[in-house]
Amino acid sequence: MSWLTLRTWTLRGRVAALCVTVGLLLTALGIAAVFTAAASNDRIDDVLNRTTPMRAYGESIVTAMVDQETAIRGYAISGREANLEPYRRGLAEENRLIGEIQNLLRSPGTVDDAIRASLRDVRARAEEWRTAVATPVITAVQTRGPEAGQALVRASSTARFDAVRSAIGRMQGEILAVRNRSADQLRNTGETLVAIEIAAAGIVVLAGAALLLLLDRVVSRPVVELAEQVREVAAGDFDRRITSTGSPELIRLAEDVDGMRRKIATELNEVREARSQIEWVNEQLKVQADELTRSNRDLEQFAYVASHDLQEPLRKVASFCQLLQRRYAGRLDERADQYIAFAVDGAQRMQRLINDLLAFSRIGRITTGFTEVDLNRVLADVAAQLEGRAGEEADISWSELPTVEGEEPLLTTLFSNLVGNSLKFRREGVLPVVRVTAERQDQEWRITVRDNGIGIESEFADKVFVIFQRLHARDAYEGTGIGLAIVKKIVEYHGGRIWLDLDVPAGTSINFTLPVSVNPFEETPELREATA
């Protein structure tokens, strides 16, 4: 595989190839370890569970043969049948031990054949001793008495019993040889397992080193280079082309980042052009703002003049006209009295217009600061103020109203104008009824002032809040036509909105909103949801 072909591999592919290679090597070592461990278990079984018990059984066979030989000598001397009991127990023990050794031996064709041959030799030698010595002595004692048995014992040689001992010794030697071979093989398998573990550790270390080298060459260094290029672009070098020599993923990432750089550079040029236009517009706005500031100063100067310089001569004109009316009423002709009345009425209306205009201009400009205002108390004050106009039979009522943040004088003016209009525009022969209600809607209060008066036609719904807008003749209802304009400005100054409800069968219904007072101890819907 060529280097160019390898460069086209993705990082995931390279890591996967490395992991697969390491996995195959570790699997091969694991299989070898399994077989080695199985062989080791066999050797441990030979040492602990087979050869060691066989050697112990061999020693016990020697003891059993000695018991038999001693019992025969004792029986020959005493002739008592009880002395043969150790012989019979020794014979039974011998057979049992030989059977145990046979059970521990494996199938033919293994190294156990030598032990098996030695075991057969032991059995043959023992049978020869019993045939040549033990059985004749027992027969002689039983038939001819102890003297005959003793004569046979003295006449017999110990060679046959020594042959038994020698056969048992050879068997023990074979068992020991097998044990030693198994111990040597066990040591070898242990060394093999250690070698396998060392090889596995070496493979893991090499794989880790290869992975670190791969990540350094394919990820770390290319990422550092890519980050350096990005920092240069971030520093203002938007013409710097971004490239990468790392893995295909990083190359594609560099291409995407470079595409983003080109797009940002293009949009930056557009932003610069737009900025120049905005700066020009800001200059124009600054000029207009300066002009507006100058206009506001002129307006305040006008308000000052209107409240002082115009009021004083107007009061003088009104005072002298009223003086003429009182002093010369009836002394001149009827037309002169009419002209004087026109002059007095015009001066008074001019005073009311100036005062209402000043009140309208002061809203939001001259402020006492927002405080918590109880609208129930405000309605009570308004009802008391309008008691003379309402009369004893008028019905002004309100439900439980909220406490809001605002300027109490302005809110008093608001309700005074609304309730006053309801009393002013009553229906002939119908006692006036005014209802004020409040309903919370999310983060604002919706307040409704409804009456049973003459109502407002739908085509005038957009005109009633316009300053100096009148819907009736001047001589039909008193007023300057600025009341609802003042109400609208007060509502908007408090962050609300106002509108006329046309879906009422009779009378007038005006709705407006005020923000809910922010109380840190009040459990809002958001707080209830957050703590649920």
Write up this protein.
About 70% of the residues lie in helices and about 10% in strands. With about 525 residues, the chain is of the alpha+beta class. The chain has four domains: about 5-220, Four Helix Bundle (Hemerythrin (Met), subunit A); about 240-310; about 315-360; about 365-530, Histidine kinase-like ATPase, C-terminal domain (Heat Shock Protein 90). Strand 6 and strand 7 (about 510-515) form a beta hairpin. The longest helix has about 80 residues, at about 160-235.
Radius of gyration, in Å, reads: 62 Å
| Secondary-structure-derived class | alpha+beta
Shape assignment: elongated
Number of domains: 4
Largest sheet: 5 strands, mixed
Would you identify the regions where 5 or more consecutive residues have pLDDT less than 50? 472-477, 520-528
Distance between the termini: 63 Å
What level of helicity do the residues show? Answer: 55-70%
Q: What is the helix/strand order? A: HHHHHHHHHEHHEEHEEHEEH
Number of strands: 7
What do the pLDDT scores average to? 78
Main attributes of the structure:
532 residues, alpha+beta, Four Helix Bundle (Hemerythrin (Met), subunit A), 4 domains, five-stranded mixed sheet, two-stranded antiparallel sheet, 70% helix, 8% strand, elongated
